[in-house]
Specification:
heterodimer, B: four-stranded antiparallel β-sheet, 0% helix
Chain lengths: 106, 131
């Protein structure tokens, strides 16, 4: 099974900050990685697929990069609506998620 | 509007069964693979199972934690995907989500592989397994 590890688990930031979340796979997953945003009591929302492709309707301040085993999600200028938990997900071999990164207000 | 609505959740005793439904609208349901995920209280996301579209055989895959106990099926005429859960355990307590899955096809040495990601999620239905 492929294990996904995100860091950090909690990130404290302010509106306007540039934020980066890292996701590592236990083996190469090529570019078969997605990022999701989840707010309390809500379903996950797709942000990025194939490591760097922005889902339609998602603000351009979100971007993804990486391939192989190391990936990043970057929010270029954090907005009030962005405080949430973010999950990476590999879909190279079935599906598995990282443990999540909670972005909270500093 | 593309929409998925889960239903059928509730409180059930350990060892009993429950069937969840995922009703789709706003797209041609039969053209898409579908999946089920779950999220235990205060925990992360876990894949449960997957069903291909009929065009790709309609076959299923399951996570090890539910294999042999859970079964996914689909009724394309009604635009519904089902998750039949048998022999429920307390650790199956979670919010269950269904998703629409989009494929990317990759051809390598004449062999086609498909990689699916989840572009639409339902709002979820809560299953509580407790005596």
């Amino acid at each position: 099974d492929i294990q996904m590890t995100q860091s950090p688990s909690i990130l404290s930031a302010s509106v306007g900050d540039r934020v980066t979340i890292t996701c590592r796979a236990s083996q190469s997953i090529s570019s078969w990685l997605a990022w999701y945003q989840q707010k309390p009591g809500k379903a996950p929302k797709l942000l990025i697929y194939k490591a760097s492709s922005l889902e339609s309707g998602v603000p351009s301040r979100f971007s993804g990069s990486g391939s192989g085993t190391e990936f990043t999600l970057t929010i270029s200028s954090l907005q009030p609506d962005d405080f949430a938990t973010y999950y990476c997900q590999q879909y190279n071999n079935y599906w598995a998620f990282g443990q999540g990164t909670k972005v909270e207000i500093k | 509007e593309v929409q998925l609505v889960e239903s059928g959740g509730g409180l059930v005793q350990p060892g009993r069964s429950l069937r969840l439904s995922c009703t789709a609208s706003g797209f041609t349901f039969g053209d898409y693979a579908m999946s089920w995920f779950r999220q235990a209280p205060g925990k992360g996301l876990e894949w449960v199972g997957f069903i291909r579209s009929k065009a790709y055989g309609g076959t299923t895959e399951y996570a090890a934690s539910v294999k042999g106990r859970f079964t996914i099926s689909r009724d394309d005429s009604k635009s519904i995907a089902y998750l039949q859960m048998n022999s429920l355990k307390t650790e199956d307590t979670a919010v269950y989500y269904c998703t629409r899955d989009l494929p990317t096809a990759v051809t390598t040495l004449g062999k086609i592989d498909y990689y699916y990601y989840m572009d639409v999620w339902g709002k979820g239905t809560t299953v509580t397994v407790s005596s």
